[in-house]
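Q: Start with the shorter request: fold the first protein.
A: Done. Sequence, then structure:
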Amino acid sequence: MVAVRPGDVEATLSRIDPLRPVVLLYGPDTGLVRERASAYLARAGQGTSDPFGTIRLDGDEIAGDPGRLADEAGTVALFGGRRVVSVRAGSRNIVPAVEALLAVPMEDAVVVIEAGDLKRGTGLRALCESSPRALAIACYADTDRDLGRLVDTMTAEAGIPIERNARAELMGLLGGDRLASRGEIAKLLLYAAGEPRITAEHVRAIVGDASSLAIDEVSDAALAGMPSEMSGAFAKAIHEGMRPDVLLGAVCRTVQGLHMMRLGIEAGGSVERAIDGARPAIHFRRKPLIEKALRSWNSERLKVVLLALDDALLAARRNAALGPAIAERALLQIAGAARRG
């Protein structure tokens, strides 16, 4: 098996292994797949003067012509040097093309395949994991350590230090997609250019979607049994132009997430483990309220809450003029139920 362990990924991708010329990068974090593929392709192409040395193929095209991938990898580069082939898997099956590729010798060639989330033991993933001539590397959402390393590297390269509380605030708003995280950090660095350091105020002003933060305040306060705080956050969100039906829909998604966590807890897990294992990661400022909500509700009661929110959402859409009143009443009822336990 040549499935690379998470702790070995960076070291593995830092060098070109001539014995394993085929590299499969897959997983739910498409940004990380793309980032790692781009870096490896650039490393593989170093030292060649051939402007056409990197061949880019569409997975759906080679699915209809399985022999083409092996032919492209076996073609001698026009100006010498390593032959580099980039493949992005699409909706069609490319296993026959990769099987043909692995069945023939490749001299001084590298093939990088980008794919989405692949099930263990099936298809393309199983093929590359079982081949001694291929590497299979999973790309999952960044852990806190990965995010911390990314923040530290980018701020150091920009020469702008970041305060500890600002770093914690920033990490709570990142995750899920590596390229999106890079984009948010780059935006922050541009915003803070010329400042002596990055503060929490800079992070709140520029990173993420302010409307999502307002939604979090409403949903967390309601589900934690804090009606006064919920009313204040709700009034703020409506004043800023948020539609009540959109707000109710977002609270529904929060309840769905809580429901999944409660199922894990009721199956024997702990509240702390459920919160720490949530993806995307829960912002550190939200964790106390999420913990309180998880202790206030069980899975059956959360199902009742979802039905009530669905009814309120439909009513708010049917009567836009009364939408804010309908939404606030439903959320206050949820807050009251949470307080009663």
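Q: Next, the second protein, separately.
A: Sequence, then structure:
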Amino acid sequence: MLIGYARTSTVEQEAGFEAQQRDLQAAGCEKIFKEQVSSVAKRVALEAAIDFAREGDVFLVTKPDRLARSVFDLLAIVARLEAKGVGLLILSMGGQPVDTRNPTGKFTLTMLGAVAEFERTLMLERQREGIAKAKGEGKYKGGVPTVARQADEMRRLLADGVKPAEIARRLGVARSSVYRVIDPAAAAREAA
């Protein structure tokens, strides 16, 4: 059986989410597990998909970052699937499919994953160096938090009679963030 898994981090990534599902269906997936959750959060649908898979099945994803948060995580998932006799097929890894059911595919996955992780580490190092330099020159102020940028809009919507839960939904923030803006003292009491 071909089992698909689609994931995006946020509901704002709807087009990408739909594209993943379309590509998995086109590849012949008979069952598709899907969720919109950060890769660092608990991924209930991923766990359900792995539990559902049986020996001889093939687990499909469109890209490796939809499945795993790091090379270590990716290889751990591959090991779990292999222990069940399930292969992994990544439809596009640098434009080419990678299939762990053969040694070349497994090698390619490991090498490309390691290169991606290495590049990410270098990028983060360059970013830290740039921030340190900018701080030293007095040019770095840090980012303005999303909620702080939207505080005026939250207050306007509240004045228009919009409920906090609806404000949070419209602005794409947590309801607790809305409460912190409209009543910081109450939010502080709840946190204590």
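Q: Describe the second briefly.
A: The mean pLDDT is 85. Helices lie at 14-26, 44-52, 71-83, 103-136, 146-159, 164-171, 175-182, 184-191.
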